[in-house]
Amino acid sequence: MNKLIKDFDFTTYKDPGILEFKDVVIDDKTLPFTMVACPGKVSSIVVDPAAGHQLIMAILGLDKVKGGYITVDGELVTYGSGAFFRQMMCYVPHFLPQVDMTVGELCRQVVSKYNGKNLRAEALTETWNSLSINPTVWKEKIRSVPPSVLWLVLLSLVSLRRGSIVLIEEPIVKNETVDAFITQLARQGREVICTTQTQPIDSFQVINITSKSE
Prior knowledge:
Blueprint: H1 2-7, E1 19-25, E2 33-36, E3 41-46, H2 49-59, E4 67-72, E5 75-76, H3 79-85, E6 89-92, H4 103-115, H5 125-130, H6 147-157, E7 165-169, H7 176-187, E8 191-196, E9 205-208
Parallel strand pairs: 3-8, 3-9, 6-7, 7-8
Antiparallel strand pairs: 1-2, 1-4, 4-5
C-alpha cells in the first residue's frame, strides 16, 4: 500500500474515491455505524461536536476511531495512508483559523496548496455573490471577521479546489442558501459528508450516531 501511494500519479487519477465506514465507533458516547458515501449526494452524520471533530480527523488520517474501519476505494485510512487520501479531500472546519493574515492571504494559501494557483479575488466574485459574502472582506484581517462570514469564505473555496470528497464539520451557518450551495457541490459528482449536532442540511442520507443513553 505505501509503495502504491508513493509511486502514484494523482494527476491522472479519475476515480471518485468511494468513502466507506464499516462498524465505526468513535468513542463510548456514540453508536456504531456503517455507511457508504455517494458521489453526487450529501450525507449527514448527527453527532456531538467533539466526536464529530474526531471522526473528521480520522477520515483525514490524523486521528483514530475506537472501533471499525474507514476506507477509500477499499483501502484503509491510517496515519500512513492519510497524506495520500487527503489529496482527494476538501475540509471545511468548524474551528476557524486565528492567524495574523488577511482573508485574501488565507484564501490564496488554501487554494495554492491544492491547485498550485495564485488566486485573485475576481475568481470568487460569482461564488461570493451566491453566498452573500461582501467582497470587501478580502482585505480584512481574519481576526476582525465574524466567524459566520469566515466560515462562508472557507466553504466558498471548495468550489475552486480539487477533491472528490468534501468534509464539512458542524456548519456555523445553516440556511437555504448554504443548503443550495452544498447541494451544488455534490452535484459536481463529489461525496459530501457533513457532521452536525442539530438540524441536518438537506441530505440524501442522515445517520444519527448520538447514544440514546446520553
